Every structure is written in C-alpha cells, then in structure tokens.
C-alpha cells in the first residue's frame, strides 16, 4: 500500500478515526480540491518566502495532502504526524510519516523550522490542557526563530451562517458538499464546538508561548503565524 513502509509508529496500537467522520471528510473534498485549497492557503501564509531546505513538519496531517503541496512547492525536508495510520496510508510521496499523538511528539528539541497545522487543534478532547500540551511540544521542537503556523475553524459571522445552512435539511439534501460538512461537524461536534467556544483562552495561550506575526480571522477560519518566545 502507498506510503505504508515509511510510517514510523510512535503508538502501540493502531488508532483510526471514526468511520462515519472519515466518510464525510472524504466526501467534503476530493484530494485534488484539497490540494488546490492547501496550495492557495500556503501561498497566502507566505510559503513562497520560506527557505526550501527548511525542516517542516505538519502535525495532524491526516491523509497528507498538505505534505503533497509542500513537496510540490519544492520543500525538501517534510514530515507529517497523525494519530490515524489508516489516513497516513493514503499518502504517497517522499515525506516521512509518523503515526503518533501530537500531544507527545518524539522529535528532538529545536529540530524544526516550521510546524504547520491545518485543522487539527479543534480535535483535541480536553481544553485547555491538551492545547497547552501541543503548544509546549511545538515550542520545544522549534528551532530559535522557527514558526508555528496554523489554520483552524474560528467562530465568525460567516461560520455562524454556514452552521445555519447546515441545519436546513432541504439545503443539505440538494447540496452534497453541505451535507458532507454537516456530517463531518456532527462527527466531531463535541471537540469542534468546545474549540469554537474558547476563543479567548486559545488566544491567551498562543500569546503565552508565541510572538504573534499574523492572526487573521476570515471565512470561519483563523490563520495564525507565531514565533517561539
Ligand atoms: C480534520 S483532520 C485534518 C487533516 C488534515 N490536516 C487536513 O486538513 O486534511 C484532523 C486530523 O487530526 C488527527 N488527530 C486527531 N487527534 C490527534 C492527535 N492527538 N494527534 C495526532 N493526530 C490527531 C485525526 O486523525 C485527523 O486526521
């Protein structure tokens, strides 16, 4: 199977995601759509200026389409971590993969230039404790001057409108993408809404560990770049 041999396991037992959620996640976007979205996103985050030999790791990388984009952009040292081996196995490319928990990373101290997260922090089950564990790990593995970059759902008027649309069954029944989004949110609702409800805590914790370079909330997402304190 593609990529299988390159997965280093940090966990004893194989952990998968919820099947229903995974089905909705895949129905929401094709890999091609996801790759196009990630490419636009990385460019908007300034990826054109990052050195191509930077040590980059994407946490919560899922099926690895973010890694595909990093490689397509010319980055030569790319790694990915996710709890789900099933999703990691869908990736085929040259990045090194680790099946593990992002709350306890096994990377060396000060070994990465860029730590990237695209939609993973809102899956953490215990807030604020789990977020603090991840941020401490990110801080530990970043080289001095290294950057923590993430994109996560964020409560904005746009997102409130999307949630409202998801609640209207006539809309979800005639728009498959909206139905997939509805199902995905349903599958992760506990952590998702807990995350969305704790904006102040999230910002305070980011400020505790990182010097903010960018913090933009748009279209229901927070785009964040911080440098280790
Ligand atoms: C919404 S998906 C995002 C995947 C990918 N970044 C993307 O945008 O397509 C969230 C991912 O986080 C992973 N995950 C959840 N909790 C995790 C943890 N504690 N450590 C590592 N990965 C985790 C799940 O397996 C899932 O692949």
Automatic annotation (TrEMBL):
Give GO MF terms, alphabetically: S-adenosylmethionine-dependent methyltransferase activity
Domain of life (superkingdom): Bacteria
Entry coiled-coil feature ranges? none
Q: Matching Pfam families, A to Z?
A: Methyltransf_11
Q: What is this protein called?
A: Ubiquinone/menaquinone biosynthesis C-methylase UbiE
InterPro entries xrefs: Methyltransf_11, SAM-dependent_MTases_sf
What keywords are annotated for this sequence in UniProt?
Answer: Methyltransferase, Transferase, Ubiquinone
A GO biological-process term? methylation
Pinpoint the Methyltransferase type domain residues: 61-150
């Amino acid at each position: 199977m593609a990529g299988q041999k390159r997965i280093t396991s940090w966990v004893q037992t194989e952990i998968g995601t919820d099947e229903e959620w995974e089905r909705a996640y895949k129905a929401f976007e094709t890999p091609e759509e996801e790759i196009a979205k990630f490419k636009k996103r990385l460019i908007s985050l300034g990826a054109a200026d990052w050195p191509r030999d930077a040590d980059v790791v994407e946490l919560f990388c899922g099926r690895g389409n973010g890694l595909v984009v990093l490689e397509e952009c010319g980055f030569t040292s790319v790694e990915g971590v996710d709890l789900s081996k099933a999703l990691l196995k869908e990736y085929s490319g040259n990045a090194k993969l680790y099946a593990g928990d992002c709350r306890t990373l096994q990377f060396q101290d000060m070994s990465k230039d860029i730590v990237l997260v695209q939609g993973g922090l809102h899956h953490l089950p215990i807030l604020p404790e789990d977020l603090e564990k991840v941020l401490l790990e990110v801080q530990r593995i970043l080289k001095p001057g290294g950057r923590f970059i993430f994109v996560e759902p964020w409560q904005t008027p746009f997102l409130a409108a999307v949630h409202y649309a998801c609640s209207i069954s006539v809309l979800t029944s005639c728009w498959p993408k909206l139905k997939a989004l509805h199902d995905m949110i349903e599958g992760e609702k506990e952590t998702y809404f807990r995350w969305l409800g704790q904006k102040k805590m999230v910002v305070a914790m980011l400020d505790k560990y990182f010097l903010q370079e960018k913090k933009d909330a748009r279209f229901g997402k927070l785009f964040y770049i911080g440098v280790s304190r």
